[in-house]
Write a structure and sequence with these properties.
Shape: extended
Strand order of the largest sheet: 2-1-6
Distance between the termini: 38 Å
Strand content: 25-35%
Radius of gyration: 21 Å
Number of helices: 4
């Protein structure tokens, strides 16, 4: 397994001109493809696996919308996060003005030893048992700054 990283310089006006890594995801694996792969390793029919995966997605969405954290054993944790702007006082902060966006957080499952200590870091190449490849400027033409797009 490999994690592909593209390294680009921030060229926006008034930026620090530092270089940042961005993950590249060359393809998307959908629910049907997952069901087919799972079915190959278990004694359950592909259609049954597909039904369970669809229901998992629906139940996870409902639980996340209810503000709950979802833990999938031996995989990881999902929960909602928000981005917001600040206000001068707590009383002045309000949803319409300060809430900017929602996002889903994900952290890989951590193994704990008998003393309850985490035996691996939450997310990194060693946890993924893979290698990280640097792919410099592969997406340069498709990743334009807002300044280059005329905004």
């Amino acid at each position: 397994m490999a994690i592909l990283i593209n390294v680009l310089q921030d060229k926006r006006k008034n930026s620090n001109k530092l270089w940042y890594g961005r993950a590249i995801t060359p393809k998307t694996i959908d629910t049907a493809q997952l069901a087919k792969r799972i079915q190959a390793n278990v004694s359950v029919k592909e259609s049954d696996v597909m039904a369970v995966l669809i229901e998992l997605a629906e139940v996870m969405q409902i639980e996340l919308q209810n503000g709950n954290k979802v833990q999938l054993d031996r995989f990881g944790y999902f929960w909602y996060g928000i981005k917001s702007s600040g206000s001068l006082t707590g009383e002045e902060w309000n949803v319409p003005e300060n809430l900017k966006s929602f996002h889903i957080n994900f952290v890989l499952f951590n193994k704990r030893n008998s003393a309850g200590q985490v035996t691996s870091k939450s997310f990194g190449a060693t946890d993924l048992h893979g290698e990280v490849y640097m792919v410099n400027n592969v997406l340069k033409s498709s990743l334009k700054s807002k300044e280059e797009e005329g905004e």
